[in-house]
Write a structure and sequence with these properties.
Helix content: 40-55%
Radius of gyration: 19 Å
Number of strands: 10
Strand content: 15-25%
Distance between the termini: 39 Å
Order of helices and strands: EEHEEHEEHEEHHEHEHHHH
Amino acid sequence: MTQLTTNVDGPVLTVTFDRPEARNAMTWAMYEELLQTCGRVNADESLRVLLLRGSGGAFVAGTDISQFLEFEDGSDGVRYEARVEEIVSTLASVDAVTVAAVEGACVGGGLALAAACDLRVADESAVFGVPIARTLGNCLSAANVDRLVRLMGRGTAGELLLLGRLLPATRMLDVGFVQEVAPTEGFDAMVSEVVGRLAAHAPLTLWASRGMLRATAGVPLPTSEEQMIARVYGSEDFRSGVQAFVDKTRPVWRGA
């Protein structure tokens, strides 16, 4: 039975981490399925939004710790961090706007996955952290630490990594890591509103904007800046958008 399920609704592909008995802690197989799903999105231009969420009131409570019993020496840790970074960086550069919808635990590897997304929304139950200094005694890769620092600042990243604190959604909203927080009873409606807004926007504008935003975090542009700008301004969407604005009508986006 798969522990990572997918569902497509128009331009939105939703990934659900579905291992509620373990607060959706990631197995090796789940990481690999996520990588394959990113490839699926990249192969289908109609998929413009990738939504990540968990089942059972949790997002992802890290990597399944029992798997670390297989490790024999430090080289296993090097291979593990390299593989996780390959998967996280693939998520960070996938050809869709990515949204992490966080309920409950968003810890360790779960925090790394959320940090790789373009946007993060949370309900009031969400908690974020990397408590490995007081639990496992392992470490993150430099790339994952860099993502945290870029998104929440060095001080907050240090609070998570060095003090091992778990911080609530409201605090993560204050530091800019999370973009919206909703009460639990209104969370699904808020997620639907955010995803629906993204799905309704001009696809090429989103493509260029997410590329430029990701470039500030070290993700290479999909093509040159000049080619990206030319594609957007040379599109039928731009011409029809300008005309619709002048005519005071609603534009119809075709992604071309």
